[in-house]
Amino acid sequence: MATEDTKRFMAKYRSSHEFRKGHRERNKKYKQRIRLETLSLLGELKCCKCDFDNYLALHIDHIYGGGHQERKRYPSVLQQKKLIEANPQNYQILCANCNAIKRVINKEVIKQSKYDD
Q1: pTM over 0.85
Q2: What's the domain count of the chain?
C-alpha cells in the first residue's frame, strides 16, 4: 500500500504540465493507431466514391445512417472498432467531401442553423 508521501507526490505529479502533456501525446497516438486499424478493417484506405486516399481526411460512414446516436452510445474508439469488426458491411470509407455530400443529399444534418430557410 502506498504511503501518504507517495500519494501526495503522485497527485502533484499527475497535475503537472509534463504529465498532462505526455498523457495527451500518448492518448493522441493511441487514438490514431486504433483509427488506422479500424479503417483497415473496411478494406483499402481510400474513399469508395472518388478514390481519394489521404487517410487524414477519410471518414468511417454508416451506410444506413445513425452514426451520431452510435457515437453517443459508444464514445470509446475501441468500442467503435469492435462494432465495426462485428458488422463491417454496415460501414464504408468516404472522404470528408463525399461524406458531407451524402449527409446533405440524405438530409442527415444533425442540427439545422437558425438561418436556414
Answers
A1: no
A2: 1
